[in-house]
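Running this now, will post back.
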Amino acid sequence: MKILVTGATGFIGKRLSERLASEGHDVVCTGRKLSSLGALLSNVKPAYLDIGDIESIKNILHREKPEIVFHCAALVSNGSFSQLMKVNRDGTHNVFEACLLSGVEKIVYLSSVAVISGNPQVPLTDDMPYSATNRYGQSKIEAEKIAIAYRAKGLKVSIIRPVMVYGEHEPHLLGLLCRLARWRLIPVIGDGKAKLQLADVDNVVDVMMLAIRDEKAYEGTYIVADREVLEVGEFFEYIAKCQGARPPFKIPERFVSALDKIPFIEKRISFFTKDRVYSIEKIKENLGYVPRVSVYDGLKKAIKPVS
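Update: finished.
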C-alpha cells in the first residue's frame, strides 16, 4: 500500500514509518529534517515538506498518490501560542484540504488526549467535552475540530488520542525526568499515590496500524494508553531504579500546601499530585485493541542505565 507520513522525522512519526516499511508498505516520509531519518532513508522515499505550504502538500500528493495519509506533524511545546496555532491548526487545515482536493480517501490524524485533559473526571473518556490545560492542548483542540469538519466533507478520518507517550529516544518529557532522577532533583510529593497512565510508543503505533485494515477506526475518537496505571511515586522510583540511581527524595504532605501557593511552582506541583487516568474501553471494544507492551517493559527498554 502507498502511504504518506507527515512529521516522519518526529518521535512517533519515525517509529510509525519504520513499522510501515517493515511490513512492506511503500512509504513516503515527509518532514523538514530528513537526515534525522538515519538508516530508515534506505527503506522509504524521503520528501521535504513544510505543512505551512498547502501548494507543496498538493504537489506531493499529486505526485505520490498515497492511499492513506498519516498526519503526525505537529509542534509539541507550550511556547508561542501563535506558532502553535500556525503549525497545529493551520498546518492541519492545509493537509486536510490538500487531501480532499487530491482525492485521498483516508487520513489518520494523530491528535492528543490534551484536548480533554482539563476535565476533572477520572478516568477521562473519549466522550468528554473539549477542555485543555495549556496552549498546546488548545491548539490541538482547534486541529481536531478541523479533522472532524473534513469528515463531513467526505474524507474518512481516524482520530487517535495518545496520552503521554514514551519510548526509546523520546525527546521530550522522559529524557528530562531521567536526568532529574540521576541528579536526585525529582521529588515524590506527599504520599506519591497520585495515579499516572502512560502510552508506550509501540502501543500507539499498533493502534495507528489498525486504521489500515479496520473501518471502525474512522468513527469517533480513540484514546490510546497502556493497560497499567502507575502511582507517581512508583513511576519516579522505577525511573531511578532502571538507571541504577538513588531513589527520589520525598517532600512531606505538610509542605505541599505551602508550595502550592507559589505561582511558578504551583503548576508543576500538579504533575505530582493530579490523577492522570484514562479509559481505553472504547478502543478495546470497537477495535479489539489490547496493549502489547506493558509499562514496565516499555520503561525498562526506554531508560538506559547510567554507565
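The chain has a mean pLDDT of 92. More later if anyone needs it.
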